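TatD-related deoxyribonuclease, pasting as requested.
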Amino acid sequence: MIDAHIHADTRPYEDFEMMALCMDGAITLAHDPFEMKSSDAWVSHVERLINNDVKRAQENGLKLFVCVGIHPRAIPKDYENAIEKIKDFVKNDVVVGIGEIGLEKATKEEKDVFIKQLLLAKELDLPAVVHTPRRNKEEITKIIIEEINSLDLKNEKIVIDHCNKNTVKDVLDIGCYAGLTVQPSKLTPMEAVEIVKEFGGEKILLDSDSSSAPSDILSVPKTVLKMKLNDVDKEIINLVSHENAKKLFNLTI
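Structure tokens follow.
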């Protein structure tokens, strides 16, 4: 199993060991752990993910990969410098994508930063992981889809994450991957099971979004168990919990 979206910098050593007991690996992403007053603060955040958290996970038996990007809640004033710095960070072997990027309130600045990073992901031929907010999810997801459709992108390399039952179809219809986040206030394991039963396993990923918010670091294996108990086909379970993430991010696990 692969957890396709966590925030390792917020988690203790013990979580990595617990994940390693039943999972092949995880992907940690840039987010908003503190106010990004400048691109220097953002650089320090990303450097911790690459240099510190990958090592912490490895020491506890978990293979951890990294996506780098500017979260919509953590845009530094000099964000152009941060976007340029992404080009250096992706040269590191543990970096497998751009993220998490996206929209929170769909302000003009958010859209500008989002579009620039989508285009950079296309230029670098890397997957992009797109954030959708808890509030106004359906409305903001529609705006995200409009922005993606306005650009000549490789939609098959984009994950629109934190989907719910009302947004999954629209995301899959434009050829993007749909991320199902099993986390309090997002999806329960059974809600994820019902979505997978309806839409199948193609282009769907499971993740926990484990962070400083209420989270369950084992929500992916717990959801897999619920799928088994509810007669979801083994091939579909394998796709959503492992193979889709492995293929999209070109992971060596």
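Note for the archive: The CA atoms of residues 138 and 167 lie 6 Å apart.
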